[in-house]
Amino acid sequence: MKTITIETPLVSECSVTECAYNLNSDCHARAITIGDGVHPGCDTFFDNRNHTKAAMRTAGIGACKVEACKFNDDFECITENIRVGRSKGEISCLTFAPH
């Protein structure tokens, strides 16, 4: 496997405890994807009781598909970090801010 090093905003907090990548309110996916083009949902979320064992890894934001967010630049997030949690019943990027 090749290893690359990139700078990416981090997921500073995730309150969606049933997500497989959530361990102690932190996201431990390698990188998450935000949005479906309109809604700032966490596309990486999946419900699983077997939580990740990669507790040393902190998730970054791999892509953001929500063009209407002021932190989106060429489909990448440009803020320092984001929070993920529930908003209106959806699992979402809570840092989302419209232009």
Description:
The mean pLDDT is 94. With 99 residues, the chain is mainly β. 31% of the residues are buried. The chain has strands at residues 10-14, 22-23, 26-27, 31-34, 60-64, 72-73, 76-77, 81-87, 90-93. It is globular and about 35 Å long. Strand 6 and strand 7 form a beta hairpin.
Strand ordering within the main sheet: 1-8-9
Number of extended strands? 9
Uncertain segments of ≥5 residues (pLDDT<50)? none
The H/E string reads EEEEEEEEE
| % residues in beta strands | 25-35%
Radius of gyration: 13 Å
Q: Mean pLDDT across all residues, rounded?
A: 94
Helix content: under 10%
Estimated structural class? mainly beta
Main sheet record = 3 strands, mixed
Q: Helix count, per DSSP?
A: 0
Shape, principal axes of CA atoms: globular
How far apart the termini lie comes to 39 Å
In short:
The chain is mainly beta and 99 residues long. Helix content is 0%, strand content 33%.
List the helices and strands and how they pair.
Layout: E1 10-14, E2 22-23, E3 26-27, E4 31-34, E5 60-64, E6 72-73, E7 76-77, E8 81-87, E9 90-93
Keywords, please?
globular; 3-stranded mixed beta sheet; 99 residues; mainly beta
